[in-house]
Write a structure and sequence with these properties.
Blueprint (H helix, E strand, L loop, with lengths): L8 H12 L2 H9 L2 H12 L2 H17 L10 H19 L6 E2 L7 E2 L15 H4 L2 H5 L1 H8 L3 H12 L4 H8 L3 H18 L17 H16 L2 H6 L1 E10 L9 H10 L10 E8 L2 E8 L8 E11 L2 E9 L13
Parallel strand pairs: 3-7
Antiparallel strand pairs: 1-2, 4-5, 5-6, 6-7
Helix pairs in contact: 1-2, 3-4, 3-5, 4-5, 9-10, 9-11, 10-11
């Protein structure tokens, strides 16, 4: 996401639309960038619905500031700057948008406002998609939330979008030295939050699921539909990290404790023993949509979404989401 040199055709046409005051023509140009702006806001906020709202706020601010666009920067750069500052304003007002202690020793923090991101809403631009998987995976999004808001903005602009320090400084009204210092601190935190992960977010990365991942998802769904607790347990790493959102206090860091909690909650007993599942992906990660049929109900109804991180053929992280009443995921409500 770099600035244009000479005034580009899009920028020139955008300036003409802005000067004419034609809101419809203006929207034609801004709408092209909706998906990448929405992902940008999601990286900042970890919440799909908030990202939708802040993207709309970005377009409103862009319209109100249209006279300030002179074409010195690419249109997408100008819009990203507005979106970043809209997110920072949001975070300044919403003090609940920070990780909270999990209450478990050495288990870290929970992010109860975290929501999954539907893959169908990811950018179609191939240049954006090559880094999409690792920079929208849940672990990455959660790690970013541990950064203070302005550090977060510096990190996303510099290390994800590849902006030079001078441009990030201008967008955030900081000095280049302040941006450089903030980025160094952000990188330390990201290394702490993502140990063992590659941290070169700007180099190409695959976003396709492996055959291994697809096989584990199929086995996970089969175990659910067969009420096979042993089969389910066999798919989990002993050091499984499990969370069920948006419920607070559900972060668990062993497979045994997770399974014990599922059993005590009635999993595979009457009323929670008639499951159908559908494979899907969110955040470029394998996932299973879980549908439960209650006694006497003719239909299976969407209940939870299990998002899996699979390492060496085992489930290392399982993040469950209550997805009732979330049509934006694009999942059928019943089977």
């Amino acid at each position: 996401m770099t600035d244009a040199g000479p005034l580009g055709a899009d920028e020139a046409a955008f300036i003409a639309a802005a000067r004419s005051g034609d809101a419809a023509r203006f929207a034609l140009f801004t709408e092209r960038h909706r998906r990448e702006l929405q992902v940008h806001c999601y990286r900042m906020l970890a919440n799909y619905e908030d990202a939708q709202d802040l993207t709309q706020e970005t377009f409103l601010r862009a319209w109100n500031k249209r006279a300030t666009f002179k074409g010195q920067a690419a249109l997408r750069t100008w819009l990203s700057r507005i979106a970043t500052n809209a997110c920072l304003d949001f975070l300044e007002k919403r003090k609940d948008r920070t990780p909270v202690p999990s209450g478990l020793e050495d288990a870290g923090f929970e992010v109860p406002y975290l929501q999954p991101y539907p893959d169908r809403m990811l950018p179609e631009d191939p240049q954006e998609s090559v880094v999409a998987r690792e920079t929208v995976e849940l672990a990455f999004i959660v790690a970013v939330q541990h950064l203070p808001p302005r550090q977060r903005a510096v990190f996303v602009l510099r290390d994800v979008l590849g902006w030079p320090a001078s441009k990030a400084a201008d967008a955030l009204e900081l000095t280049v030295a302040s941006v450089t210092s903030a980025l160094q601190r952000a990188r330390v935190t990201m290394r702490e939050q993502l140990p063992g992960r590659r941290l070169d977010w700007r180099s190409p990365a695959t976003h396709e699921l492996s055959d291994d991942e697809r096989g584990v998802v199929k086995s996970y769904m089969d175990a659910h539909e067969r009420n096979d607790l042993d089969g389910l347990m066999s798919l989990l790493r002993e050091d499984l990290r499990f969370a069920m959102l948006p419920e607070p206090g559900t972060l668990i860091t062993t497979a045994k404790d997770a399974v014990d909690g599922w059993v005590s909650g009635g999993l595979f007993r009457r009323g929670k023993d008639d499951w159908r599942c559908a494979a899907t992906t969110v955040n470029r990660m394998p996932a299973a949509a879980l549908y439960l049929r209650a006694p006497g109900d003719p239909e299976y109804r969407l209940l939870n979404l299990a998002v899996l991180r699979i390492v060496d053929g085992k489930i290392a992280e399982l993040t469950g989401f209550d997805v009732t009443g979330q049509p934006w995921l694009g999942l059928p409500p019943t089977l």
